[in-house]
Amino acid sequence: MTSLYPSYRCEHCGKATRGGRPNGSLQRWRRKLLHLARQRQDNRCCWCHHEMIDVLNDPASATLEHIVLLSEGGEDTQENTKAACKRCNNERHTAQRVERTIAAWESLARLGEAAE
């Protein structure tokens, strides 16, 4: 599998840095993805279509939304990311956690019924 990040080498010793990328490059890459997504979407949330702002901790601030979650095998690519306001991003992930919890409880209930 090819790395998403270019190979970085120390100027002094020539060794590859941790993970093939310098410290902080993942955050820089995600900031770049967010910037590109905001440009593609005309600075509008991909879910509610309201304009996003650059104020930290504001419900309308821009966040990077992964279409296929990283925990489910999604990647940090332009094709898998969109810009969403913080409110929509949080609501989506809360709803997904609730759905996963319900599915887990239903699965446990079926196992309990099968054991009886």
Protein model, in words:
This protein is mainly alpha-helical and 116 residues long. It has one domain: His-Me finger endonuclease fold, CATH 3.40.1800. It contains 2 helices and 2 strands; from the N terminus they run αββα. The radius of gyration is 19 Å and the shape is elongated. It starts with 24 loop residues before the first helix and ends with a helix.
CATH level-1 class: Alpha Beta
Query: At the third CATH level, what is the topology name?
Result: His-Me finger endonuclease fold
Helix content class: 25-40%
Query: What radius of gyration results from the CA coordinates?
Result: 19 Å
Care to give the gist of this entry?
The chain is mostly helical and 116 residues long. The protein is built from 2 helices and 2 strands, in the order H-E-E-H. The longest helix has 30 residues.
Characteristic key phrases:
116 residues; mainly alpha; 40% helix; His-Me finger endonuclease fold
SSE layout and pairing:
Blueprint: H1 25-40, E1 62-66, E2 81-85, H2 86-115
Antiparallel strand pairs: 1-2
